[in-house]
Every structure is written in structure tokens, then in C-alpha cells.
Amino acid sequence: MNIHRFLFLLLALMITVVIRVEAQKDSVEQKEIVRLHYFNSNNSLQYLLLESILKTGKKSEPQKHKVFKIFLDSDKVENHITKVLTDEYGKAKAVIPVSLKPIWDGASSHTFIVVAEATSKEEETSSEFTITKSKIAIDTSSAEDAKSITVRVMKLNNGEWVPAKDVEMKIAVLRLGGLLQVGDEESYTTDSTGTATAEFKKAGLPGDQQGNLILSARVEDNDELGNLSIEKSVPWGIATKPDNNFFAQRTLWSTRFKTPIWLLLMAYSIGIGVWGTLIYLVGQIIKIKKLGDHFMDGSSQPPM
Amino acid sequence: MINSTAPTSEEITRDLLPQKFGTRGKIWTVSLMLISLVGVFAYYRQLKYGLEVTHMRDYVSWGIYISNFVFFVAISLVGSLITAIFRLANVKWSTPLTRIAEIIAVSAIVFASIIIIVDMGRPERFMNLFIHGRIQSPIMWDVIVIGTYFFISCLLLYFPLLPDLKILIRFKDQTGKALNRLYRFQGSFWKGTKAQSRISRKSIHILCIIIIPVAFCIHTVTSWLFATTYRPGWDSTNFGAYFISGAFLVGAGGVVVAMYVFRKVYKLENYITIKHFDKMGKIVVLLALLYLYFNVNEYLVPAFKMKKPEAEHLTELFLGEYAPVFWFAILVGMIIPILILVFKKGRRPLPMFIAGSMVVVGAWFKRYLIVTPTLLHPFLPMQEVPQSFHRYFPSWEEWAIAMGSLAGALLVITFFARIYPIIPIQETITEQNGKDEHS
Amino acid sequence: MKEVDASSRRKFLITGLMAGMAAGCNTNQNPFANTDETVIPSGEKVKLLSVDGEIIEVDKAFLKPVPDLPTISNKEERKGIEGKKFVMVIDLSRCKNLKKCQSACNHMHHVHPGQNWIKVYGMQDAEQTAPYWQPTTCMHCDEPPCVKVCPVDATFKRQDGIVLIDSDRCIGCRFCMAACPYSTRVFNWGDPELPEEIAEQKYSCETSTPQKKGTVGKCDFCPDMVRKGQLPHCVSACPNGVFLFGDMNEDSVTNGSETFRFSDLIKDKAGYRLMEDLGTRPRVYYLPPVNRNFPFESGLENENDEDKKNILK
Lengths: 304, 439, 313
Description:
By secondary structure, chain B is mainly α. Chain B is built from 18 helices and no strands.
């Protein structure tokens, strides 16, 4: 009796667990996340970078090859910016076409509407991203012992340029694949006049062949302004000449066109010496053959 | 010392002419062919599926193909020892052995080249060695030096063959039409005139001189394929000399085995005598002692220090997984043959044959030990690879190809002995006449 | 329009995508607009609206999130990128054996299952010393023992310091594998397992794809990514920023989010190289596993059972 009760309880427990697991499976929702980043580069070139991510539980994957429509301010046909297809990293890029100039010029801030079209599996979804037009300027001053960089950010407010306050930015030197901060701080924030100042503390940094460094100020994913960037080239680096002597050396690891001379000499002298002798010996065989061919009568064996 | 029943030129010629295969010869040849064919089939599989059919993997990236290659290169060195060094040193008793040594050298070097092509992942790109060859690489040195050694060995086989070809051509009835045509093609121009003999003698002399440094080169360069890396067990300045001494030993062992077999099969007791065995026995002892000396250098010195990367490798050899093979190679490859051959009774044909076989077999395993255990002891620990990468035992395809190549080498020697006199006829006659005159 | 001279076409993309945007503009308002070296023109132009409502033209190549690069000849792949000296720093204090570097690398290069170009070793130098995780890539040595021994120039050292393999030339002798003390090279023993579209691609030394049967493969420092202004796959895949990649001529290394001055970093954290005594002069530096972000044990869960046994031995 007891054992039956135990088994029954065990069964009940197992069923509960199974149901729980099933329920959990359902609750692991797939969530589509669309992000739109607005980029303003050097106050001139602007573009949109769309990022589409599919989140399953904790795991997120890029949504490849998905079509999105992007609109400016309103999802009417005349406000259509472009239709994009995400690449294998789930990303797509768009620029604002010339035809939308009246709408673009008409307001200080704009809303981008991203529409994922309805498919057989999914419903139409749309998301909105708003930015305010802005501009960014970079200025440098260099005294004997102190070099500084001043960055000013302005935004358009009801048709008027006003300083953008509390904008966080990076001020850095452009390097391969990354931004090397100019001073001790990782980021700088604009004050009420819209300016941020950074001290340049990277003395002796190698620049290009003329000693130029490219400074860059970057506002990254600001809620109001989007991504702003500006660059300036300054002669604050050390001029570096690409050193190809290393590659031009004749070494044991060089290509066959750059064999060390001593090795070539050794190899060729040994090779020529040995093979010269061998060719001579082949010549001797030919000589023996000629001698034999002249010696017509082979019947009698001459004394050795 | 010359007994009154010294054979005449006619008898010598008749004794030494190549003979048709008997039943045993046929069985021997056919079985060698079968073994080679299995090897060819295994190689076909390797070509089709890639080196995946072998059990070599990323750590043991060189296996028995390379040890077999080293073995072949080693054994081929004997050609230079018996032929050149003895000839230059005016050692007369070695005359009957020269051709045996030379054909072992040629066939071994041919199969060394074949086995190295078998080891390549992309054999069809062999020509890249000549199109894009890079002289900084020890492999290029090996390619050049092996090619050269092969050529010299062929010449050294050919020059002394010329007078014999003349004799062979005379015995058209016995040798058959096809062979006669071959002999005529190769040597019908040899009339044995004074001028011809002089040129030939001089050429042989030059060859004997030039083959010695080239022979040293081929095995030194082969040892450098290992010694130019950083690996514990290979990173040794001793390697060139170590390889050469080992090569002379296995070559001499190989000649002893071949002497015994040819003597038995072709009934050459009058030509390959007890005296020859006795002298070869002494030489094998000398070479085995020499090789033992280099082995002591090679293992004792690092074992005294036990540097970290070396320690694991040496412990594995002395006491670990490879200890049975290691001590087998030392004992059977060197110590036991020495013990047999130091005694006069041990230098009789049969014990000599056993000792010679031990030397050869021991040498083959020695080459295996030089290649594989080192690769299993890299500097960084073996991690992040499938379990099968952690050890190495050759697959059947590897065994088949390795054995097939050995059979192939023996087959070349067998056919050579079928076509040409394995003991130089003319030289034997000349020496006999010389002896007669002296007596 | 700013003219782009032909020779700069393949010049290296130093600053990547963002900075590259400026280059194609027809406005010369900004005298410091980036130099034209970052342009990879397709020839076609696209008109678009600028921030201040002007009409500007850019090259069509900018419309792609990842720019396409013109294909590079084998000769140029062998020469390498001019003026660069690539370097990597691996910070052992940040590694917890997540192996994300490895999976990204294997995925992008279609490395044969079971084999790895990047290995994360569980290391313990002596009985009483602390264990640590040590990722290894190819060391791209300045005295590369593997290149020394190659008989056909199939593996070679480029002017930017990278050691590459040309699988179209490799004869599969595996001498390089024996010569490499870091056990970094792997061999394609059988037919590589490749998706069809990859297998049909033309082989490139810089992407090391498609892998070929009977040839050697190894970490290539992803010069194709660097040409696009992006970081090697292992660097961008590591969530802990263990790998730092950069150009010695710029004296900087970055993992994408943090950028350091290379010389300062090596000095401050006592950087070193593996097996310095062999004289191979690697281009990969290590920062010692001090002040670690993770305990060693936290990495054990990602280790396979067999290796775990060996590590804990």
C-alpha cells in the first residue's frame, strides 16, 4: 500500500515537472529587436544603420536577410526613405534620398519609422526613432607645454542653434580598429555652452609620415542627437617612416628571391663542383663509347 | 694460400652468370610483388581520401613514412662505404661485395624518394619543388643531395658493369634474346681496349672520391630535417654524426644479410667465403660500437641534465610507453650483435646472418623512435584536440605502404641479380689471375 | 569631386567605416575631411541628402554596412599591407576559457571539426604555481622557424609582420608543423568540411578559405578583416576583451572597446612573449595572469573531460 502511494506521488511529481518544463518552453519568448542608429559624420554626411536582432531567451542572434522599410516622420508613401535588406550580421544601411529635402529642411527634429512588413509568419511591426538635428565642431590649441582640444555641440531648437548641454562624448586619436583616448578620462561631457575640453597627454605618439594624428570627437548613441563624429588632423605626432628594411633583408626566412648570399654561394659552388664532375664522367662514358665504336673488330680480347 | 683447385676464368664466368629463378626464387618474387601491390592499393586509397587514412594527426604529423624514409637513406649509405671507402683504402677482399652494396644503395635511394612523395599531402605538386624551390629549406638540400647521390650510385654501378656486359653478351644462348638486346644497348661499345680501361679506371676512382662527401651529405641533411627544429629529442648538434654512424651500421648489416642470401641461393661459397664474413663481422662490430657511442652521447648527456621539455621525452623512452621498443632497438640493434660478432665463432655465416638481421630490424625500430616519440612531446601541452591525436599507431594503409616499399626495394635487388651478375665477373677473374701470378 | 587616384584604391583602411564616410563627400567645407586613403570606390556615385539639407554625392560602396574590397592578387597578398606592423596582446588576467575566440575563428575559417587554430591551454608552470588559461594564436614570429623550413615559399612572412600560408602552393610536407614550437599549425588530413558556397570560392591567402585537402592551415591574423577596417574575429568575439590587436607603427592595441598605447601597456603590465629563449621573436605578447577578473576554476566548465583530467593532474 505504501509503495503504491509513493509511486503515485512520484508520478504526480513527474507530471508537474513535465508541465512546468513545457510551460517554460512557451514562456521562452522570441523577441525581435530593431535598433536604428543615426550617424552624422563631419556635419555633412548622414546615414542610418539598422540593426535587427532576434532574442530567444537570453541568446540573441542577428536577423539575416530581413526586409525593412524606413520612413521619415510619417509612414506615407511620399515619406518613404528606402527599403533595406539586412546582411549576414543583421545590419543594413540607409541614406536619405534627395527627394525628401523639403521634409528634412522643414523641421528641427525628425522621426524615423522602421516598418517590418508582414509575412506569412509575422505581423507587421513598426518602431520609431527620433533625432534632433545637430552639429559638432572641433578646435585645438597648442601652447608650449599644453595641447588641448575643444569640442562644441549645437542642436537645432525651433529653427535656432542652441548649445547642447550634457552630451557625453569621446575625444580620441584614431588608431587601427579603435580610439585611443587623448587624456586620462574615458569620456567628456559638454557644459552649458555646449563645449567640452580635453587635454592632449599622448606625447610622442607616432603619427603618419608627416607626423599628423587624426583627432576624433564622437558622440555615441545619444538619445537626442544620435551619433555625431568629427575629425581633425593635427601635427602632434612623431613622423614615422615605414621601415621596410626588415622585409628587404636576405635571411633564412626570406623568400627564394632573397636567399642569403653566403648560402647561395655555398649551394652553387657545391652544386657546380659536384655536377660538373658528374657531367665530366658522363662525357667519359661517351668517350669510351666512341673508342669502342672505332674499335671495329671486337673478336680478339686485347691484353688488360 | 691459394689452393691448386683455383677456378679458371671459364669456371668463374659460368658460376657467376645470372641464373633463372628457381621455384624458391619465383615464390619469393611473387610474394614481394603481392606485398608491393597491397602497398600500391593502400596508396591509391590514400590518394583518394587524403592522408586521413593514415593515423598521423596534428601532433604526430610525421609517422612511419618518415621513419621508413630515414631507414632507406641510412641503408643506402653502405654503397659508399663498401665500394668507395674500401676501394680507396685498397681493401681487396671487398671486391665481391661491391655490387651487392651498390645495388642496395640504388634501390634504397629510389624507394627513399618514393616514400617521401607518398608522405606528401599534395604529391601532384611535386614540381613546385623545382618551380618555387627555396634553397633555405633543408628539404631542398635533401632533394638535391638525394638526386645527386642517386646519379653517382648509378654511375658507380654502371662503370664496373661494362666489362661484365661484354661477357654477358657472349652468352646469348644462356641469357636469352631480350636480355641480350638490353646488354648490347648498355655495353656493346665496350671492347676492353687499354684506352677504355684506363678511362674507366680513372672514372671509377673519381666516383669513389666524390661519393664519400655526397653520401655524408645525404644522411647529414636528412638528420638536419629533424635537428633544425626546436623539438626535444631532435634539437641536437650530435645528430649528423649520430645518423651517419647509424647508417653505416644498418648498411653493413644489410650487406651481411644480402651476402648470406646470395651465397646460399646462387651457391657462391667459392666467392663469398668465410673470410668475407669474418671481415664484415669485424666491421659490423666496429660500426655498432661507434653507433653505441653516439647513442650514449645522444641520450646520456640530456638525461644527465633533464631539462623540462627533454625530461618527459626521455622518461617516456627509458621507462614509459616507448621503453620496450627503445631497449629492443638498443639491445637487438647494437649490443646483442656486438656480443655475437666479437667472437670468432659468431662471425660464421649463419650467426652473422642472424646478427645482421637483428641490426637491420633494430635499426628500423630505431628510426621509428627517432621520429614519433619526439612529436608526442611538444613544448605546449597536448590539449584541445580529439583523443586520437594524443597517440600514434600506424594504420593498415601505412603499414601496407611501408612494407610495400621495403618489398619494392627487395624486388629491385632481386631483378637486378636476375639480370646482372651480382658478383663482378671480370674483376674476380682479374684478381684470380693476379693471385695466380703472385703464387 | 575629390579625385581618388588609382594607387590609393587598395590602400589600407586605417580608420574604418565611420571615418571613411567623410571621404566621399563633395563638400570641401571641412578642410580636415579625412584623406582619400580610406576610400574604396566602386566607381558609381549616389546622391543623398546631407545634414544641412544639401545634396552630396558619395560612392556607392558606402551604402553597404561592410564595405566590399576589390579582390587582391596573390602577389599583393604575399607582400602585405604597407606601413603596418601588426601586433597582438593577450591579457591572461581576463581569460576565463570561454572559448568564444575559438568558436568565432573556427566558424569564420571553416576549420575542420576537432581542430582549432586558437587553443586555450589550461596551464600550470610548476606544482605550486597558480594555474591560468592561456589562449594561443599563431605567434607570427619575426624569425619564423616554419617559414625558414618551407621548401616552396608556401608559407611566408609579409612586410606587415603576418605569416601566411598559400594553400594553392603547399605541397603538404608538414616540415613547418614539426618546426613550429608553439604547435599552432594544423593539417587538412582529409577533405575539409565546407559549405558549398565556400568550397566554390576562389582561394585567398588572406581569408585562408576555402581550406584545401593535403595542406597546412593556421591562424592568419585575419588580414582581410583588417583591410576592411575591422578587427580579427577572435578579438571581436571575446566578451572579456582578452585579445588586443593593433599596429606597432601606431603604438596602439585595441579590443574594440578599449584602446591602449602598446608600449605603455607592455611596460605597465610587464608583458612578455612565449618561449623567448628560442629566439623566434613572436608578434604576440602576453600580459601575466595577475589581478585576475575570474578565478581559474570558473573556466573549467568549458573544458572537455579529457583535458580537464590532464590539467588537474
